[in-house]
From TrEMBL, chain A:
Residues in ABC transporter substrate-binding protein PnrA-like domain copies: 54-353
Keywords from the named record: Cell membrane, Lipoprotein, Membrane, Signal
Lineage of source species: Bacteria, Bacillati, Actinomycetota, Actinomycetes, Micromonosporales
Protein name: Basic membrane protein A
PROSITE patterns: PROKAR_LIPOPROTEIN
Main localisation: membrane
Annotated source species: Actinoplanes philippinensis
Domain of life: Bacteria
Location in or out of the cell: Cell membrane
Cross-referenced SUPFAM superfamilies: Periplasmic binding protein-like I (SSF53822)
Similarity field: Belongs to the BMP lipoprotein family.
Protein topology in the membrane: Lipid-anchor
UniProtKB/TrEMBL annotation, chain B:
Gene Ontology CC terms, in alphabetical order: plasma membrane
CDD domains per UniProt: TM_PBP1_transp_TpRbsC_like (cd06580)
Chief location bin: membrane
Organism superkingdom: Bacteria
Membrane topology designation: Multi-pass membrane protein
Membrane-spanning segments: 25-44, 64-88, 95-114, 126-143, 150-169, 175-198, 205-223, 257-279, 310-329, 392-411
Pfam name, any one: BPD_transp_2
Intracellular or extracellular location(s): Cell membrane
Protein name, per record: Simple sugar transport system permease protein
Keyword Transmembrane set for record: yes
InterPro entries: ABC_transp_permease
Hydrolase as UniProt keyword: no
Organism whose genome encodes this protein: Actinoplanes philippinensis
């Protein structure tokens, strides 16, 4: 009896381990599972055929407070405008999930299949070429396939304004930026930012320095992570110790470490947030956000879905390019910094924005959509 | 330590080969010293490298000509290596080795900082900040592994601690309640690890990895479903206050780093001393080592092997949980999914690199912290040295250590072997 007990123990143990592993993985997946179904009452649904808008998220999941969340919000907003829209999404937990996710929606007969994020570019083009009858769309990437509607953003234009603002606001004459990873959707912010500072220097004859990014060499500070706040804090402290007093982290959750440093600095350090207005997406740090470089993914996705639902064609060329002129990118209002940014700087920013739209000031980036 | 005495005896008894450990290390030092003096010296511009004694460019500074400094410290490293090669100061070979490595690092810094400045307070503080969770994590590992239980779940314990600290700390609006919950969070993972590996004899590495997955899954799920929708109620933990010890805090560089700090800094440093003393001088420590090295023998003399292992693994859970608290209660004011970002695995590396001893773990953690801080510093001053290289330094150092190139890393003999009374 005693011996049998000894033999069986590891077996039971392994069972428990298997349960733990399965439980952990299920919970991880459940966190980004199906959204609560919102039934659409009313006769309009039956009047028009349902337009299935299906979205495959990037690995960040639906609640990433960044582009996945924005794109999903866009689809939901579209549903309010065109009630025959039937939204669905599936979350990718790794890059290997992109293709199966897209294919699955093809076989489910989705009318509009949205891929979110530049990393999904290759997978989307591949699946779109296989199933030429389905309509695809992608955020943050171009595509060679004619049935993919690309939605890209000239983020460098808004980042340029942010750079100008930072240079004008800085008291130490040094501003800083760092990225999550050295990939085009990140470095496009940093390029624009550095150019905006350079523009300020030529216009004013000043010498404000940018720490953390060298546009010419395309090299700078990177956290190698989008969720490591401690690392973000450490990088920020280094930049601050080098003299920077305005910092723009382009690093998702890692950037919250920057906001924490700014909060501790009692007003000495200001932060420029990215993607979604910081006062909405990271509201607890609203006091430290000088402004935000906004990428209006929500609006772009909404428009595309509404167009599709109304039966209009979504043409792949030129697709959608969000820039300052169509409010696809912008800089947010100054919130608590409103009184600290002087009026001349504000009017210069307005002027600069008009100049960029008119094309008299050109902002270029190697990572910009072509 | 009993094992150390045995090694020393054999060293005396056996005739040493000419290329002893000391000579091999000496040769390596001579080579890197030469490299530093020649390469760093020739690349360094002949400008002043300023090391300011403050958090920024202000205040007093130690200043040295970059080129001169790079060559000087390179030669010093070479000299230290030469002394080891010549067989001088055999008993003090570790001191020579440390001095040599220090001189090499200084030579490198003189090259990089030339024409610029490095704020020493910021560098030291940043090093300690990045090292702090690693110290606590590695100490948790020491407790478990010295008694024979492999703990790969440090990452999971960190996450659980960070999560529990943030959640309960916010709900109770007390940082101390948060700290205690963080410790409990670590203990939960430790308890599962202990039961599965000690009672159910499951492969300990597998259990550890599974627990990491489990912690990641459950904290991620609760974060998205509970914390994210209502951050005000569940995810705004109070921050641990910084305490200043008058007089001591005025010492340059060391003062503001060590004596104007939060409680966790002192807890971590005190634990290093306490665990070291405990392991080497107390009955508990002797028994722990006995259980980790030779459980059958320990059992024969009446030590409760499993009981002691349970106790140590759970104590380790407390320590690692407190390490997790650092992420949410000290470093930042909120929890995010997978925010520990692999720190638990670096702590594991620090444990091995530190040869399973508390002071070794402290040294390794500080070294890893310094490498990370230096990487961010170098990329901020736009150094030509790729930051990726410095980012991989901790792992490279551990590989070298484990491969046995620098001394021998020996795990406790019964580490990872479940004890079956039979």
């Amino acid at each position: 009896m005693h011996r049998k007990e000894g033999v069986l123990r590891p077996v039971r143990g392994n069972r428990i381990v298997a349960i733990l592993a399965a439980g952990g993985l299920t919970l991880a997946a459940a966190a980004c599972g199906e959204a609560p179904k919102e039934s659409t009452p009313g006769s309009s649904t039956s009047a028009a055929a349902a337009y299935k808008a299906c979205m495959v998220t990037d690995t960040g999941g639906i609640d990433d407070k960044s582009f996945n969340a924005s794109a999903w919000a866009g689809i939901q907003a579209a549903q309010k405008e065109a009630t025959n829209v039937d939204p669905k999404y599936v979350a990718s937990s790794s890059e290997a999930d992109y293709e199966p996710g897209l294919r699955n929606y093809v076989s489910q007969g989705c009318n509009f299949i949205l891929a979110v994020g530049g990393l999904m570019g290759t997978a989307t083009t591949k699946v779109a070429k296989e199933s030429s009858k389905s309509q695809f769309a992608i955020v943050d990437s171009g595509s060679e396939s004619p049935n993919v509607y690309p939605m890209q953003f000239a983020t460098q234009q808004a980042a340029f304004l942010a750079g100008y603002l930072a240079a004008g606001y800085s008291k130490t004459g040094k501003v800083g930026t760092y990225g999550g990873l050295k990939i085009p959707p990140v470095t496009i912010f940093m390029d624009g930012f550095a150019d905006g500072v350079a523009h300020y220097n030529t216009a004013k004859g000043k010498n404000v320095q940018v720490l953390g990014w060298d546009k010419k060499a395309q090299n700078g500070s990177f956290a190698e992570n989008f969720g490591d706040q401690n690392k973000g804090k450490s990088i920020t402290q280094t930049l601050v110790s080098q003299g920077a007093d305005v910092i723009m982290p382009v690093a998702g959750g890692t950037g919250l470490g920057t906001a924490a440093v700014a909060k501790d600095s009692a007003g000495k350090v200001a932060v420029i947030w990215v993607d979604q207005d910081g006062c909405t997406s990271a509201a607890q740090y609203c006091d430290v956000f000088l402004s935000t470089v906004i990428k209006n993914i929500e609006e772009a996705v909404k428009e595309a879905v509404v167009k599709g639902a109304k039966g209009e064609t979504l043409s792949a060329t030129p697709g959608y390019v969000g820039d300052l002129s169509n409010n696809g990118v912008s800089i947010a209002e100054f919130h608590s910094f409103d009184s600290k940014v002087d009026a001349t700087l504000k009017s210069e920013l307005e002027k600069l924005k008009a100049d960029i739209i008119a094309g008299t000031v050109k902002v270029e980036s190697a990572s910009a959509p072509k | 330590m009993s094992t150390a005495t045995v090694e020393e005896l054999t060293e005396v008894a056996a005739p040493e080969p000419f290329w002893s450990r000391q000579r091999r290390l000496g040769l390596a030092l001579v080579l890197i010293g030469l490299l530093a003096a020649a390469v760093f010296g020739s690349l360094a511009p002949s400008e002043d490298a300023r090391f300011t004694l403050s958090e920024d460019a202000e205040g007093a500074a130690l200043s040295i000509n970059g080129q001169f400094g790079a060559v000087l410290f390179g030669l010093l490293a070479l000299a230290a290596g030469g002394a080891m090669l010549a067989g001088l100061a055999r008993r003090r070979s570790n001191v020579l080795l440390s001095l040599g490595i220090l001189a090499f690092v200084l030579s490198f810094l003189c090259w990089q900082v030339a024409g610029n400045f490095m704020p020493l307070v910021d560098t030291t503080e940043g090093t300690l900040q990045l090292a702090l969770p690693l110290i606590l994590g590695a100490l948790a590992g020491v407790l478990g592994e010295r008694s024979g239980v492999v703990n790969v779940a440090i990452e999971g314990q960190f996450l659980m601690g960070a999560f529990a600290g943030a959640l309960v700390g916010t709900m109770a609006t007390s940082v101390w309640v948060g700290l205690i919950s963080a410790a409990l969070g670590g203990v939960i993972i430790a308890a599962i690890l202990a039961v599965l590996s000690i009672r159910y004899l499951v492969d300990q590495t597998v259990v550890g990895m599974v627990l990491n997955l489990f912690a990641l899954g459950i904290t991620g799920f609760l974060y998205e479903r509970l914390m994210q929708p209502d951050a005000q109620t569940y995810n705004t933990p109070p921050q641990m206050p910084e305490w200043r010890i008058p007089a001591l805090a005025d010492i340059p560089v060391v003062g503001p780093v060590l004596f104007q700090a939060n409680l966790l800094v002192w807890v971590a440093l005190a634990l290093v001393v306490v665990i070291h003393f405990g392991l080497s001088r107390t009955r508990w420590g002797l028994r722990t080592r006995a259980v980790g090295e030779h459980p059958t023998a320990a059992d024969t003399v009446g030590i409760r092997v499993r009981g002691l292992r349970y106790l140590n693994v759970l104590l380790g859970g407390v320590v690692a949980g407190i390490g997790g608290a650092y992420f949410t209660l000290v470093a930042t004011g909120n929890f995010t999914k997978n925010m520990t970002a692999g720190a638990g695995f670096i702590a594991l590396a620090a444990l091995i690199f530190g040869r399973y001893t508390p002071f070794g773990a402290l040294g390794a953690a500080l070294f890893f912290g310094f490498a990370q801080k230096l990487a961010t510093y170098l990329s901020a001053i736009e150094s030509p040295v790729p930051s990726q290289f410095l980012n991989m330094l901790p792992y490279l150092a551990t590989l070298i250590a484990v491969a046995g190139l620098v001394g021998r890393v020996r795990a406790p003999a019964a580490d990872g072997v479940p004890y079956i009374k039979g």
